[in-house]
């Protein structure tokens, strides 16, 4: 073969060429996605989403201030508003996000109030009242009437069985969880809660928190106590008006 003669190009089957093209397109698409959403698939953070040092300082100061105020509330004489007129309380979390101290958050979690507008039935014991005094700026509470007790359980009630959330639509579920205490149906649960019966604790441990709606007309937006024109603290019988707006 002459030196100037061009070498013939090697033959590549069409199927291989198609595979190469598909692979190159896939790599290009993957790279584009990584650039748009980040290496691990999360959305790119906007500049305004990145916290500045002063924001961290403000959040830290807010949390420390929350702890100081909580300690001050516990030193105050027990107010008349924290003297229960009923054995049964219904407590609603209405505030609290990034400005809470971890100790405040822990108390709210102990009350099963992990989210805003969640509500729970509680027995008005000295321990519960002390916790309510500590987290007063974040909750409101009062004495639910039998009508609201029944409606909350029937409309928004659910139980926890084997760490699974189960709706209270079948009495067999209730019998399985509480049958050993003589609680066999929804009517038994309502009766036991409304009268703070001997198995109140077992039932409230079985029930999950009630997810309420944002109240019609909203709240005042003030952390002052209800008796001073705010939203928080003891509403006594007027808690029923709030439940009606949120149920």
TrEMBL record:
Residues 216-247 are annotated as: Disordered. Keywords: Ribonucleoprotein, Ribosomal protein. PROSITE patterns: RIBOSOMAL_L30. This is Ribosomal protein L30 ferredoxin-like fold domain-containing protein. Signal peptide: none annotated. Residues 225-247 have a biased composition (Basic and acidic residues). Residues 89-139 form the Large ribosomal subunit protein uL30-like ferredoxin-like fold domain. CDD domains: Ribosomal_L7_archeal_euk. Residues 12-79 form the Large ribosomal subunit protein uL30 N-terminal eukaryotes domain. Belongs to the universal ribosomal protein uL30 family. InterPro entries: Ribo_uL30_ferredoxin-like_sf, Ribosomal_uL30, Ribosomal_uL30_CS, Ribosomal_uL30_euk, Ribosomal_uL30_euk_arc, Ribosomal_uL30_ferredoxin-like, Ribosomal_uL30_N_euk.
């Amino acid at each position: 073969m002459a030196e100037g003669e061009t070498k013939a190009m090697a033959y590549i089957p069409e199927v291989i060429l198609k595979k190469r093209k598909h692979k190159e397109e896939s790599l290009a698409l993957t790279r584009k996605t990584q650039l748009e959403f980040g290496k691990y698939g999360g959305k790119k953070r906007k500049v305004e989403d990145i916290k500045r040092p002063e924001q961290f300082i403000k959040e830290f100061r807010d949390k420390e201030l929350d702890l100081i105020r909580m300690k001050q509330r516990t030193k105050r004489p027990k107010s008349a508003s924290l003297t229960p007129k009923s054995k049964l309380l219904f407590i609603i979390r209405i505030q609290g996000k990034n400005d809470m101290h971890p100790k405040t958050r822990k108390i709210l979690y102990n009350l099963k109030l992990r989210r805003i507008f969640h509500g729970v039935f509680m027995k008005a014991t000295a321990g519960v009242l002390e916790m309510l005094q500590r987290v007063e700026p974040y909750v409101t509470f009062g004495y639910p009437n039998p009508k609201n007790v029944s409606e909350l359980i029937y409309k928004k009630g659910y139980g926890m069985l084997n760490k699974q959330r189960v709706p209270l639509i079948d009495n067999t579920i209730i019998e399985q969880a509480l049958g050993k205490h003589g609680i066999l149906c929804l009517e038994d649960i309502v009766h036991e809660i409304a009268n703070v019966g001997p198995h109140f604790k077992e039932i409230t441990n079985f029930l999950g928190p009630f997810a309420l709606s944002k109240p019609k007309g909203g709240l005042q937006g003030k952390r002052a106590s209800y008796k001073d024109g705010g939203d928080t603290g003891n509403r006594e019988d007027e808690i029923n008006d709030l439940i009606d707006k949120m149920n």
